[in-house]
Amino acid sequence: MTTTITITGAGGQIGYALLFRIAAGDMLGPDEKVRLRLLEIPQGLGAAEGAALELQDGAFGLLEHVEVTDDPAVGFEGCDLALLVGARPRGPGMERADLLAANAGIFGPQGAAIAANAASGVRVTVVGNPANTNALIAAASADGVPSERFTALTRLDENRARAQLAQVLGARVGSVQRVPIWGNHSATQFPDVSHATVDGRPVSEALAAIVGDVPEWLENTFIPRVAKRGAEIIEVRGSSSVASAASATIDHVRDWVRGTEDWTSAGVVSRGEYGVPEGLISSFPVRSVAGEWQIVEGLELSEWARARVDASVAELVEEREAVRALGML
Ligand code: NAX
């Protein structure tokens, strides 16, 4: 079988880190051939074309074809998986409303182009920020495509949270599970350890023995560390997260297509679960079953956790209102 994958912003940094891993089979496995469509704006075409030459030189056995274009109709033609990475970054003096408007101007038309050109079962993953609201805008513009097919990447946040926990617990990261991210992919996100396990056992007791006052540690150390990890990477590396973001994108799509054994996190459309207003694209604990994300329901949330979820969801509501006020939703 061959899967057609469209990557927007393919000439950018995350695009460069993603393309070679997809071509190597890291996302869909060693038996699935891939056809790549790299969608850029005119200024990014040279970088995308250069990446296409390097893909050729990688002599990847699974890579059937690479096409570079700045035409969304061509870029999304027949695509099964759309990775929407390209976005407008916040420039100097840009207000939040300006940022939302600039991105609505990208993700609205891309949603429409997906509806008009993609394969009927297309699955869309939005990486470009503000990811949740960009996904909402794309979904709203994609007539005829169920909104369940539009997701926002919060897997990087979850991976960061699991890695931080593993480090504190002195455990392998693979042994730390059930650390969902709730809400927005932003500083308000809520990485939730209340159901977390290490080697199948609750982490709460192990944490208490190490950090003492667990609520204080969560509030003042763990959550800020996870939520501000992007800024930490910029400070240390001198440039934003790239390979880890690409890796999380691979994790998200692989799990969506091939299923999960346990929970993970994804920004998916709310149908009112946990009181999150219907239609918002919010991060939830999810599992992937038969190619579809399912929100894990029935989890207990403490009063403190509830307030954290509500605060992040309130930010998503504000973003939706701001885009509506601009007449772009
Ligand atoms: P770069 O600036 O390196 O690349 C972005 C690329 O997108 C550029 O080549 C640009 O020409 C292209 N582009 C812009 N508008 C486009 C359009 N309308 N159609 C097609 N291509 C377009 O940024 P990079 O470091 O690759 O980051 C990409 C996005 O990921 C940013 O919005 C960034 O904020 C976001 N991130 C999201 C993360 C997440 O977890 N959801 C984490 C990493 C990252 O911060």
Structural description of this entry:
The chain is an alpha/beta fold. The chain has two domains: 2-152, Rossmann fold; 155-320, L-2-Hydroxyisocaproate Dehydrogenase, Chain A, domain 2, CATH 3.90.110. The protein has helices spanning 13-23, 45-57, 72-75, 96-117, 131-141, 155-169, 203-211, 214-227, 229-237, 243-258, 303-325, and strands at 2-8, 33-39, 63-69, 81-84, 123-126, 150-152, 176-177, 181-182, 190-191, 197-198, 201-202, 264-269, 281-289, 292-295. Strands 3-2-1-4-5-6 form a six-stranded parallel β-sheet, sandwiched between helices. Strand 8 and strand 9 form a beta hairpin. It is globular. The protein binds ligand NAX. The site of ligand NAX has 30 residues, from helix 1.
TL;DR of this structure?
It contains eleven helices and 14 strands. With 329 residues, the chain is α/β, with parallel strands linked by helices.
Enter the CATH topology name of the largest domain: L-2-Hydroxyisocaproate Dehydrogenase, Chain A, domain 2
**CATH class of the largest domain, anyone?**
Alpha Beta
Order of helices and strands: EHEHEHEHEHEHEEEEEHHHHEEEH
Low-confidence stretches: none
Q: Bin the helical content.
A: 40-55%
**Major sheet summary line:** 6 strands, parallel
Structural class: alpha/beta
- What is the architecture of the largest domain at the second tier of CATH? Alpha-Beta Complex
In terms of quaternary structure, the protein is single chain
- Radius of gyration of CA atoms, rounded to a whole number: 19 Å
Strand segment count: 14
Bound heterogens, unique: ligand NAX
> How many domains make up the 3D coordinates?
2
